[in-house]
Amino acid sequence: MASQSANLWVLLGLGLAGIFLVTRKLRKAVREDFGAFIEKLQLLPPPPPPPPKAPHPLTGLTFAVSDVFDIDGHETGFGHPDWVKTHEKASWTSPVVTTLVEGGATCIGKTVVDELAYGISGENKHYGTPDNPAASGRLPGGSSSGAAVAVAANLVDFSLGVDTVGGVRIPAGFCGILGFRPSHGAVSHVGVIPISTSLDTIGWFAKDPNILRRVGHVLLQLPYAVQRSPRQIIIADDCFQHLKIPVDRVAQVVIKSTEMLFGRQILKHENVEGYLESKVPSLKEFHSKKSNGEFKTSSTSLIANVMQFLQRYEFKQNHAEWISLVKPVLDPAISAQIYETLEIPDTVIENYRSIRDEMRSAIHFLLKDDGILVIPTIADPPPKLGGKEILSESYQSRACSLLSIASVSGCCQIAIPLGFHNKCPISVSFIARHGGDRFLLDTVHTMYTSLQEQVDIASKSKVSKNVVSKEQSAEIAKEKGNEAFKDKQWQKAIGFYTEAIKLSGAIATYYSNRALAYLELGSYLQAEADCNQAITLDKKNVKAYLRRATAREMLGYYKEAIEDPQIL
To answer: CA 450, 454, 455 angle in degrees (round to 5)?
Structure first.
């Protein structure tokens, strides 16, 4: 009897040890995939063609897809178990996925999305929130959280997501990887669950800009074309004021990289707020209805409101019947928006759509000559898990003001990692006009190494922040001077240019611009003196020579006036 009891204890001990080992293995597996995957599977590419034919363009690469893409024989979960219970398994595979597999890539699984792919936090109480590999204990961002985490954790080479109001750009920014939102309509949505038809785009993540571009060539079906360099890179100064980290840590990296690769002459600065206010006339009607003349709302905030409304309105058009029938239990933040009653007249909806069309035209006009608009991807660092910060009105306003530029205009945008600040990823975004996808992918591919080099220099630099911020402040003052000059406010322009010179007195353009304002006021001696200083700083400043010639002519120095153009 004692022998039997001993054997029983041995067996029980072995059983418990086995359970312990299995549990450890399961926990290890969870840690290894960072909670990114809903389901593992395998879609293998066709055999490579025999030589001398070139291999498939994506040969050897692996990828994952967000749980909104149909794959034959598998459930498309849409981030909610009630959706799975009420829908059959897919009977075919989304053409986007098929195209990538036929291009040589292997699909290895489906990844977590926010509930109904609607949120921006990356949280999902049903399947678990994926761990952010770049910032432990912080949100991964959504809606395509699992897809971003899979790339950030090196589980796949690239992944697919859906970007409606930032579903690819936000997780790319939070996880410190590249995220591409193509031009609206550039990639087929067939076989993908819709969220908001007029805003949805199929986007993708990668760590390597070469892979990001190769996937783009396959999905966008781009023919061969000669690569073009940007003719202007426009820093959206006002957008950078939203940042909750030092502005120079982001903007100066882009400025220095641009100067090294293309020269300072292609750098421009723009107040996007004012530009859109003047170029999107339908905003005025929208503003008057929102404010009743009592307060002024910024143009980017109004456009963010348009984006959020279209998301809610079109989501309900697509899924209201299912929600009404099934009554799924939803996260309160999502539920409040989805169940909100929208009693909006048709005329207002048409006005929203007019704003969308005017936005596309405005951005196209701004960036038509191979231009890039530079903005922060997201204003804030990734919030901590379990916090409510991301739900606050101020957080949402800062985020959506930036995200709405591409979402509403339909333009293409790439989120680019720029290292870390206080152990959180930093991200900047490049935007190109609608249809400029190849140009944007090529530009980022060209600039990426230089940008990362500048990140390293910035992080190691011992130059005080005050010196850098003075340079940035000087550029802002110069742009204000340019705006005043356009409005024929000559004295005001001189004041701004003088401020720029005080902040950074080694820039020839500031003196040359002030000289032009002095000419308009008839202050020819001051204009000549400023031109002399500009030429001392930059012997190739053509405008300074021409303006000095004008000043000398008005002062009666005809011989010297004639000599200036001859020097050129």
So the answer is: 115
pLDDT tens profile 386-420: 988 998 999 999 999 999 999 999 999 999 999 99
Task: List C-alpha distances in Å: 140 to 32, 283, 352, 451.
Answer: 16, 33, 31, 23
| Whether pLDDT at 464 is above 60 | no
Non-local CB neighbours of 300 within 8 Å, separated by 6+ positions: 239, 272, 273, 276, 401, 402, 404, 405
Encoded tokens for 79: 């981030």
Q: Which two tokens stand for residue 331?
A: 């996260």
Exposure on the CB side of residue 439, measured as CA atoms within 13 A: 23
* Encoded amino acid at 362, one letter: A
Amino acid of residue 435: G
Q: Which of 101, 309, 96 is nearest to 186 (CA)?
A: 96
Question: Residue 500: which pLDDT band, with cuts at 50, 70 and 90?
Answer: very high
Strands 106-111 and 37-43, how do they pair? antiparallel
* H-state helical runs in 153-294: 169-175, 209-219, 237-240, 248-262, 272-279, 282-291
8 Å CB contact between 159 and 111: yes
What pTM does this model have?
Answer: 0.78
Q: What residues are paired with 205 via a beta bridge?
A: 159, 179
Length of the chain: 568
Q: For 543, left (φ over 0), alpha (ψ -120 to 50), or beta? A: alpha
Q: 273 — phi, psi (to 5°)?
A: -55, -55
Are 188 and 96 in contact by the 8 Å Cβ rule? The answer is: yes
Tokens of 279: 């170029």
Q: Is 293 exposed, middle or buried (0-12, 13-18, 19+ CB in 10 A)?
A: exposed
What are the tens digits of pLDDT across the range 289-311?
Answer: 444 444 367 899 999 999 999 99
d(CA 9, CA 33): 36
Please state, in angstroms and as integers, the Cα–Cα distance from residue 98 to each residue in 58, 220, 363, 416, following that order: 13, 14, 33, 27
Number of alpha helices (DSSP H) and beta strands (DSSP E) in the chain: 21, 11
Collapsing DSSP to helix, strand or coil, 263 comes out as coil
